[in-house]
Amino acid sequence: MDDFCIASIFSDNMVLQRNKCVSFFGEAKGDFCVHVSIFDKKNNVLSQNKCFSQNGKWICKLEPLEAQDDCKVIINATNSVNNAEKKSSFNIINIEESFSNVSIGEVWLAGGQSNMEFELQNCTEGPDEIQNQKDDPNVRFYYTNKIAWKDEHFFEAEKNTCWQTWESEGKKAWSAVGYFFAKKLASDLGCTVGVIGCNWGGTSASAWMRKEYLSTDDDLRSYLIEQEEATAGKTIEQQIKEYEDYEKAYSEWDKQYAVLWKEQPGISWEQAEKILGKNPWPGPKSCKNPYRPTGLYDCMLSRIIPYTLQGVIWYQGESDDHKPQMYAKLFGTMIKNWREDFDNPELPFIFVQLPEHRYEQDKDFKHWCLIREAQLKIHQTVKNAWMTCAMGLGQYSDIHPRAKKVLAERMEQNALSNVYKMLPPQNALSPVLKDYFAKDGKITLFFENADSGFLVHENSQTLENYKKLEQIQGNVVSDDFTGFEVAGIDGVYYPAKFALGGTDSQLNTITLCSSKVQNPVFARYGWYNYGPSPIFGKNKLPLSPFRTSTKDGATANQHAEIQQIMTCS
Hints:
Layout: E1 4-6, E2 15-17, E3 22-28, E4 33-39, E5 45-52, E6 57-62, E7 68-78, E8 94-112, H1 114-117, H2 126-132, E9 139-143, H3 152-159, E10 163-164, H4 176-189, E11 193-199, H5 211-214, H6 218-231, H7 236-263, H8 269-276, H9 295-299, E12 311-315, H10 327-341, E13 349-353, H11 367-381, E14 385-389, H12 405-418, E15 432-439, E16 442-448, E17 454-456, H13 460-472, E18 484-487, E19 493-495, E20 497-500, E21 509-513, E22 522-525, E23 535-537, E24 546-547, H14 561-566
Parallel strand pairs: 2-8, 8-11, 8-12, 9-11, 12-13, 13-14
Antiparallel strand pairs: 1-3, 3-6, 4-5, 4-7, 7-8, 9-10, 15-16, 16-21, 17-23, 18-19, 18-22, 20-21, 22-24
C-alpha cells in the first residue's frame, strides 16, 4: 500500500448520491490531514470538509447536495500536520487528486449472481440498445474489481477500475438489469444515475457477508463449518495451488465442451459428462475459491464500503437452493450486515423473486418454491426490502433468461413507488397472499396489491414446456391443471378450479375448489420450479407463488446439480 491512497471507486465520471451526506474514504500510513472539496461547473465551492486519518484509514463526510452535473472533486492530503516536532529527516508528503465530470445524482448497487452479472451485450435487448441508443441515457457504471484473492495482481487491477460513461467501450459488459433499471430511473427522476456492479455468477449470499454475521447461529454457521472442515490441515499455499490446478482443468473442460456442443448441438449434460468426464466446477473449497463464505465480501464489497448509496438492487438465490429452508435467515442477515457496514440502517433493497426455471434433465425438486417463499417472507417482514416478482420471465431449460428489460423496469417501478414515493404501491408490487378461509368445500384467498382485480394470461408455450418436462420424468399433467392446487388434512394436493372475485368489494379474491378434495385445508399456486404463471393483477404484475401454510408437509431435500453448474456463467 502507498503511504496515502484514495479508494479506487473515486474516479473521473463518478456519481455521488444527492441529498445525503457523502462519504469519501481511503487508507493511510501515519497521520494525514485530508481536505475534500466539491466544485460546480463554474468552479464555485459546493461543499468541503476535512478529516484526520486514524488506524490506517480515513473517511471524510460532506454535506448533502442537490442533483447536478459537470462537477469537480479535489482531495488534498498532507502528513505534515501533527508531525512538526518529529525528526528533521521526516518525509513530508503532500498529495492532491482531482476528479472531473462528476455528477451528483442517484447511486444504486447492483448485487447478486449471474443473472445480475448478465451483460448488456448478451441480453435480448442489448445489441439494439448499444447500436441505436445515440443519446446519452444518463447512466454511469462502476464495476468493483472482480478478483477473489488479494495478491499483488489484485491491487494493481483495482487501481485500473473507474467509472464508465455511455461513451465507454466497456458499456457492453455492464449489468443488463442494472443498466435498464438505471436508464428508466434516470428518465423518471431527471438526473444522472450511477450503478455499482458488485456481483459474481454462481455465488451464495454467504460469499457476500462478514464472518461475524455468518457466526450468529448454527444454520448460518454451517457455511463456515463446511469450509473449515474441507480446508483443515492445508496451508494457504496448498489451497492456492489446488485452486489454480482446478482453474486449468475447468478451462480445458470448458473448451472441450464448446467443441462438443458445436459438433452436437443440444447434447444433454449427462451425455457431455460421459464423453468429457465430470465437470470440475465449483472446484475445491479453498481460500482462493470465489464461492467461499465471506470471500467476495472481503475482496469486492468491503473495497467500496462505505460509498454513499440510495439503495441496492439484488438478484440472487439460485445458488442457495441446496439450503432453501434457511434462505430467509441467510438473506435477512445479509441485509442487516450491509446496512450496518454502509452506515444506513434503512438502506433500501429491491430484490428479485426467482422466475420459473428447470433444465430438461432435472427433476422438479420444488426447492425453488421454497426460495421464492423465503424471498416473499423477507418482503413481508424486513423493513425497506421490497420484492419484484419475476414469474412469467423465465426461459425454458436455461437458468439465464436473456430478456432483461421487463424485469429491470419492474424493479424500477418498485423503487419509484417504495423508495421515491412517486407511485402508489399497488401500481408497483405483485399481488401477494394476505389471508384465506375455508368454507363449504371451497377456499377463498385474499390478496394485497389487487384491489382492482385480476387478469388471466394464458401462456400455451410455457404450459407445453411444463408438460414436456414432466413427461421426461414419466409424469402426466392432468387436463384440469390450472396452477392452483388444494389439499385436505392429508396434505395431498390436487389441481383446483378457480374463480376470480367478481364484486367490487371482492375483486382482490380468488376462490378455489376441487371435486377430489371435499374439505380443503391447504392451497397453493405456482408450486413448481418451472411452470405457467397465468394470473396477473390488473397492474400487469404476476401473482406471486404461495402456499397458505408451511404445515402442509412440503419439503425439498434435493437440488439439481446440473443447474448448479450453470449458475456461474
